[in-house]
């Protein structure tokens, strides 16, 4: 009996040594979760059960438990390295075969798919053909590496303050080349359908009390490219109330052109239906280019404005007793852009950054969690698969419910504590030696009996 007891002890100590050695070997493996040997004693039993004075029959390895406590977060320089701070696993796919991992070594393959260092596809919520995120639709995440197409400007927003102490210029008529014919000016870039930038300039001329004239040119030309009046701007009456708040901005029907007394109408396609919002409708702006360069002659460049024109929103502008200033400016057009980098936020949304200053969502990483993570089956390469004991995976974006947050540009270190493992190694070694001594002692006792005469 003692031989069997000692042998079971040797087997248990060997398993403990193997498990501890495996933990030590993977102390530097990102996302690795250490294991623990769990032992149980053995008693021989009969039909009537074990007696109260029964002698034990040894030890057995009852379970190898995985410890899923958090590892340290180690920051890297790779934007696609991902670490989970809290509960959850990355879901990866190998041609449809799903597995789960905490190792966040990710990059892109030749087709732009996000893959781990073994070639498995990272999964999450994908985007549709229009680039709209599809929550609930889980698939392989892919980064669109193609250039971003330009977008013509359809909305311009600007909030400014005009100095109420300004006086009407003594020189007239308005001439954009003569600063003495207007009080203030400002410029904003707008874009055509080919992504060409054009400079829209506004000139403000003080009129009567609380009333200003705003003159608008694009690239120094009349926006509709009227060949007969190339330098004649669109003109608008901008009015403020006694408190200095904007009341209205309406097109002026006529204005004096370059030749004194020549009336030039602002096109009917420029309208206003909301106070402070000017609607430059279709045909009110023709994108142009100077041809030849330096000639001062502008011709249509072959592109178009936005199909609906663009709206110019001045609501919130004021006329106070302070210097002219533009407080905010925005517009929604942009030129073509090349992929400049990727950014992933704490909720797992992946954004592509382009050289034109724009960003576009590419998808969203989802995390999976299980009712019993101890029931997951390890398959190597720091991956697990579900089993009947683990239950079905529950998938949600990072930070949802009990799921952890996502840290981009970082990796989760192994949760192995080397000092603990080295102590365990010594203990396992002592156990092995002690059980070997049990067998040696039983052998000596047996030899003594054999030698009886």
Structure description:
- The chain has 453 residues and is mainly beta.
- The chain folds into three domains: 1-68 and 415-451, no CATH class; 74-143 and 340-413, no CATH class; 155-331, Sandwich (Tick-borne Encephalitis virus Glycoprotein, domain 1), CATH 2.60.98.20.
- Helices cover 13% and strands 40% of the residues.
- The chain has helices spanning 2-25, 418-450, and strands at residues 35-43, 56-66, 73-75, 82-85, 89-94, 97-101, 106-108, 114-116, 121-127, 133-140, 155-163, 184-191, 197-206, 211-218, 234-240, 246-251, 254-256, 263-265, 270-274, 277-280, 288-290, 298-300, 310-313, 318-320, 325-331, 339-344, 349-354, 359-365, 367-369, 377-380, 383-385, 394-396, 405-408, 410-412.
- Strand 12 (184-191) and strand 13 form a beta hairpin.
- Helix 1 (2-25) packs antiparallel against helix 2.
- The longest helix is centred in the C-terminal third of the chain and has 33 residues, at 418-450.
- The protein starts with a helix and ends with a helix.
- The relative contact order is 0.20.
- A flexible structure which links the flagellar filament to the drive apparatus in the basal body.
Quick overview:
The chain has helices spanning about 1-25, 420-450; strands at about 35-45, 55-65, 75, 80-85, 90-95, 95-100, 105-110, 115, 120-125, 135-140, 155-165, 185-190, 195-205, 210-220, 235-240, 245-250, 255, 265, 270-275, 275-280, 290, 300, 310-315, 320, 325-330, 340-345, 350-355, 360-365, 365-370, 375-380, 385, 395, 405-410, 410. It is mainly beta and about 450 residues long. It has 3 domains: about 1-70 and about 415-450, no CATH class; about 75-145 and about 340-415, no CATH class; about 155-330, Flagellar hook protein FlgE (Tick-borne Encephalitis virus Glycoprotein, domain 1, Sandwich), CATH 2.60.98.
